[in-house]
Amino acid sequence: MPGWLRRLSLRNKLVLTILVCLVLPSLVSMNVSSLFTRDAVRSQVTDSSRESMRIVSQIVDTQMKNMIYVMNFIQFDEELQPSIRELGRANEGTDKGDVLQYKQTIAKRMSTVIDSFGNLNVTVLLPNHEYVASYTTFSFNPTDFLKKDWFSAVEQVSGYNVKWIGAEPNYSKSTNQPYLLSAAKPLRKNDTTYGYVIVGLEPKSLQDLFSQYHNNESMVIIDEQGRILVDKDSTTIGTIFPYYDQLPKEDGSSFVKVEGEDYILLSSHVTSEWQLVNMSPYKTAAQKIESFRKTDFLIQLFFLILFAVILLYMVRTLTKPIARLVQTVVRIESGQLGERSNISGVDEVGRLGYVFDRMIDRIELMLEENRREQELKRMAELAMLQAQINPHFLFNVLNSIRLKIMMKGDSENAELISSLSSLLRMTINRNNEYIPLHEEIEINEHYVRLLNSRHGDRVNLRITAASDTLLIEVPRLLLQPLIENAYIHGLKSKPGEITIASRICEDGRLQLEVRDSGVGMTEERLEDLRKHLVNVPAQHRHASRSPSLSGIGLNNVLERLRIIYSHRFDYEIASGPDQGTIIVLRFPQQVGKEG
């Protein structure tokens, strides 16, 4: 039996068993039905979508044929050929009037065909850079076509084939269409190219056709590289169709999954290089069939819920005393020993409740007796502590000794005793976990004074604390371990300078710095120290949080600040050979609570 199942209560196990027995048959029935009908439904939906796409494909194919017809008309029309050839042979010596006459003849003949279509822009471009266009050329010079990347491919077109270029920026300012669907072919006779014809189709009619589909359906025309040429959304033109790699290799259909939903993907070639792609949700296409299956599911679900409610009511009635007993146990576990189940009855649950209540009565009696014993023990310990020396007596004695030494004129030793008294008072006092920063600095001044008297060395303690930081409360005896660490490891117990600095950071946190003028560390030693502080051993993390004059170490200082301020605390350590060491602490001004 799985672990999670063993942890369930008796009531939940019964409920789970009932739900499994009710739900499992329905799920099996629905899955078997879905398995047998899935292929048939998919085939029917695919045929329906293919028929809808066939109609659209015919319209698109007509537009493509119109483009081919115009290009073939220009190439083979006997009335156009003489004028095109004469215009192609024109040079600087040709009469301008003749050139104009050739162009007007060509334009007039082309308009008889183009006007019947209405949405085509036709350009006849000749090798001598002469041209005839069916659109205004004030803002666009058709000779720029010769500079296009695709123009070299047009020259390589064999026979009477067409180069399907794709979506080109609209060079005709007569419409606000951003793109034109372009194709081109060379004009040849006896394998000699005497010109080019370029046709641009305004895709508005196709976009209007594609816009008839719903938002979750898409109809696009793409090229061989998968770039979108025509879409109802003009902003996608030129981008890669997202599911190009999942298109069927031949004209046909495939299924893709988009955000957990199945889509039917149909494709059909409208030219040798362009495909018409339709993408529609399977769910929408199979709506009628799914509606029938949904109705069947709702009927089964209704009876399932009805039977489940009846059975759950019966289970709840039978297991209610057990649940009540469990709630009583939970309350007793939380410390409410006066709680009782008060379950009665002649069955097993009633007897269990009665025995449980009597057992709690006996436990409560035993706890009361134990409490009395502990109280007597504490009274005895208090009496023993009262017999010990009062710390205030020790401070008073030290002050008396200091006064006597001062009266004898030894002010230096009197000052040392005063520093020792202040330091001992702060060490013994456990009532204030946080003190103002100026008091913390004063304690360390006493500590350095005693340090100098003990070792005979002169450690100069320099204070550069900002005035707006002196009243901010910090954890008691926070800086003393860092001062001790700077003296022992930085100054190597020799004369030098230790600096305590403070300021308010831009983010409002308090920044404390402890610098020394000692030997510093190499880059390798500094890196080892940083790694050590990141991976603090377990024994340091569980060390006593109460500071002492023996030094709790840099590890414990950082761990203590992590516990108090969590992620709002950070630190930095910088050092270099013979450049001293600097330790920077940053934490909020608001006092937190340890643990």
Q: How many alpha or pi helices? A: 16
Beta-sheet strand percentage?
Answer: 15-25%
Provide the gyration radius in Å. Answer: 47 Å
Structural class: alpha+beta
Describe the global form.
Answer: flat
- Strand arrangement in the largest pleated sheet: 2-1-5-4-3
Question: Can you count the beta strands?
Answer: 17
Q: Determine the mean pLDDT.
A: 80
- Low-confidence stretches at least 5 residues in length (pLDDT < 50)? 383-390, 537-552
Q: Sheet with the most strands?
A: 5 strands, antiparallel
Report how far the terminal alpha carbons are from each other: 40 Å
Helix percent reads 40-55%
Describe the protein in words.
Keywords: ATP-binding, Cell membrane, Kinase, Membrane, Nucleotide-binding, Phosphoprotein, Transferase, Transmembrane, Transmembrane helix, Two-component regulatory system. With 595 residues, the chain is of the alpha+beta class. The protein contains 16 helices and 17 strands. The protein has a 5-stranded antiparallel beta sheet. A 5-stranded antiparallel beta sheet has the order 7-6-10-9-8. Helix 2 runs antiparallel to helix 8, helix 3 crosses helix 4 and helix 11 packs across helix 12. It is flat, with a radius of gyration of 47 Å. The two termini are 40 Å apart.
